[in-house]
Write a structure and sequence with these properties.
By secondary structure, this protein is of the alpha/beta class. It folds into 2 domains: 129 residues, P-loop containing nucleotide triphosphate hydrolases (Rossmann fold); 63 residues. The protein is built from 9 helices and 5 strands; from the N terminus they run αβαβαβαβαβαααα. Strands 2-3-4-1-5 form a 5-stranded parallel beta sheet, with helices on both faces. Strand 2, helix 3 and strand 3 form a beta-alpha-beta unit. The protein is elongated. The termini are close together.
């Protein structure tokens, strides 16, 4: 697939209304285990887990679902840039560290290792997310690797056709774009079978549609996909 986006006019983009509630998450066999993992995360005796899935698969959506479910429970995101890690752990019951696949330095590995140890020491819940499976992270700290391998893990797989179709419709709806079934079918036959591939082409379609002041149609999409 070749995507072209030359000579776009300057436009004012309308804000997306991304639906991030529990009922908005598209569930099927490719992600059902991950949804159950999040639904039961804080109910488990050992609240240490890793949510793994490719870019754009909905990890942030599911983290948002978890946070909304924690009524009366203090939670916080934690990044490797945070200098007050002890305070975060002492004042919150659930700590979330996203995108550990981007931890590519000894300092960040030490931060992650320390966070896991603190969560156990203080009996705090810790949820990690990653776009790569543990075997692909290539961490150098062996003790960190063993800690991660011992944690509960849930996976989101690349979408099948059923999920792809539903995802295309949702992403158009998030951008307040109404499309006909034949447009969805046309896209299904031509775009990459991945979450990131779907997101990228729909973002481009939205920008071109807005720039050229045209509705989303097969004719418009043909100018973008070769």
């Amino acid at each position: 697939m070749k995507i072209e986006n030359d000579n776009l006019q300057l436009t004012i983009e309308m804000p997306k209304r991304t639906a991030l509630d529990r009922e908005d998450f598209l569930v099927n066999t490719r992600n059902k285990a991950a949804v159950e993992f999040i639904d039961n995360f804080y109910k488990k005796p050992i609240k240490l887990g890793i949510l793994i899935g490719p870019k754009g698969c909905g990890k942030t959506h599911l983290v948002n679902v978890l946070c909304k479910s924690l009524e009366g429970i203090n939670w916080s995101f934690l990044s490797s840039e945070n200098k007050d890690i002890y305070n975060i752990f002492n004042t919150n019951d659930v700590i979330i560290i996203e995108d550990i696949n981007n931890f590519n330095s000894k300092q960040k590995e030490e931060f992650l290792f320390h966070s896991i140890n603190l969560s156990k020491e203080l009996s705090k819940a810790l949820l990690l997310t990653s776009s790569l499976k543990l075997s692909k992270l290539n961490f150098k700290t062996l003790d960190l690797v063993s800690r991660l391998e011992a944690m509960n893990t849930a996976f989101i797989e690349e979408p099948d056709d059923t999920l792809m179709e539903a995802l295309i419709i949702k992403l158009f709806n998030d951008r307040q774009l109404l499309v006909k079934p034949n447009v969805v079918k046309f896209l299904m036959q031509r775009i990459e079978r991945s979450y990131s591939g779907v997101s990228e082409i729909i973002e481009l379609i939205d920008k071109v549609s807005l720039s050229q002041k045209k509705s989303v149609s097969i004719k418009l999409i043909k100018t973008l996909i070769d």
